[in-house]
Each structure stands twice: as C-alpha cells, then as structure tokens.
Design a protein that fits this description.
5% of the residues lie in helices and 42% in strands. With 184 residues, the protein is mainly beta. The strands form four sheets. Strands 1-2-11-7-13-5 form a six-stranded antiparallel beta sheet, with no helix packed on it. A five-stranded antiparallel beta sheet has the order 10-8-12-6-14, with no helix packed on it. Bound molecules: dtdp-4-keto-L-rhamnose (TDO). It catalyses: dTDP-4-dehydro-6-deoxy-alpha-D-glucose = dTDP-4-dehydro-beta-L-rhamnose.
Length: 184
C-alpha cells in the first residue's frame, strides 16, 4: 500500500498493491489493518456507493452532507477513468476554498481519501466509467447539498459537462454557507 499526500492536507492518495499473473491481477482494495500498520487510521465506513456514467464529460458534484451526517469518502475507479476533486470547506481552515484534483482510473488503481468537511465531485474522462466509494456515514437526503461545479476555478478539462438538474442549479461557492468548521 502506497500512501501519498496531496497539496491539500488531509486528502490522501492510496495505491494498493496489485499482484499480477497470467490471468490478470489481484488487489486488496481495502484492508483496515494494512492502513493502520502504515499509520493511517481512517474512520469506520458504513456504506459503499457505486455509480456508472455513460458519457465522457459527465460531472457529478460538488457534493456534501451537512453535520451530523458529514461523510468521509474513499474513492476509486472501477472501470474507465475520472478526475476526482476535493475542496476544503471547513470554516477556519487555512486551506478553506482550496481544491485538489487527482486522476483515478481502472489502470492506475489509485484511491482518493476525501475527509469529512470537504466537498467532493468528479468528471468522467472516458465513456462507461464506474466509480466506487466507501462512506463514513449513511445517506441522509435532508442533509444533502451541492455547490456549483464551475464556481471555484477548478480546471475540470471540460467546458459543457453532462450534469444532473440538481447540480446545474446548485449555488456558487460565494453564496455557500458552509456548515463545516475546522477542528484541528
Ligand atoms: C448519494 C445517494 C443517492 N441516492 C439516490 C438519490 C437519487 O434518487 C439517486 C441519485 O442521487 P444523486 O443525483 O445525488 O447521485 P450523484 O450525483 O451521483 O451523487 C453523488 O455524487 C458524488 C460526487 C458524491 O460524492 C456522493 O456523495 C453523491 O453526492 O440516488 C441514494 O439512494 N443513496 C445515496 O447515498
């Protein structure tokens, strides 16, 4: 398991080992003990999500769940390729409003740890892309929120993405009343 820091403290890239042979490869996509042995103690996960996007340039985000239902997410790409983005939305954080983006693909096997208090979104790079992510809290539709994808200057690499109605109508980051506080 390779663990790398990103430009945004708290957001991490995890790359599990792949054991290749004549059939293909095998990988432990999640192993709590291996992460603990590496000094990384993530919160418990209670829900796994899996979504499929048919078209390249499908953008889902930027999403969050407000406390007490805030979610940390461990994200990976099951098929295809995507650009995954985390935004620090914790009031009082030295990095408030800053974002980091990482290419996740079936090929590179990378995973992105997006802690609670961060907005999350992604855009698909190729057709027929699957994303799979573990969440530290359950879906709570009443706490669900979105920030407009193009309000933070993120370079998504796409001009006119495929969006849900909810995401197309989301408020910009300037109008976003963040429910998250930096807790150190
Ligand atoms: C997120 C979610 C959605 N749903 C339902 C609600 C709705 O009818 C349908 C589609 O929901 P959405 O349009 O919100 O799906 P989507 O736009 O894929 O939302 C997801 O985007 C990424 C970026 C995230 O980080 C996730 O937390 C989540 O917000 O699925 C659940 O039943 N459970 C869930 O956990």
């Amino acid at each position: 398991m390779k663990i790398e820091e990103t430009a945004l403290p708290g957001v991490l890239i995890l790359t599990p080992r792949r054991f290749g042979d004549a059939r293909g490869w095998f990988s432990e996509s999640w192993n709590r003990r291996a992460l603990q042995d590496a000094g990384l103690h993530l919160p418990d996960f209670v829900q796994d999500n899996h979504s499929f996007s048919a078209a390249a340039g499908t953008l889902r985000g930027l999403h969050y769940q407000a406390p007490p239902h805030a979610q940390g997410k461990l994200v990976r790409c099951g098929r295809g390729a995507l650009y995954d983005v985390a935004v620090d939305a914790r009031r009082g954080s030295a990095h408030y409003g800053r974002w980091v983006g990482v290419e996740l693909s079936f090929e590179n096997g990378r995973q992105l740890w997006v802690p609670p208090g961060f907005l999350h979104g992604f855009v698909t790079r190729v057709p027929d892309t699957e994303i799979i992510y573990k969440c530290t809290d359950f879906y709570a539709p009443q706490a669900d929120g979105a920030v407009r994808w193009d309000s933070l200057g993120i370079d998504w690499g796409v001009r006119d993405p495929v969006l849900s109605e909810k995401d197309a109508q989301a408020p910009g980051f300037d109008a976003f009343d963040s429910p998250f506080e930096y807790e150190g």
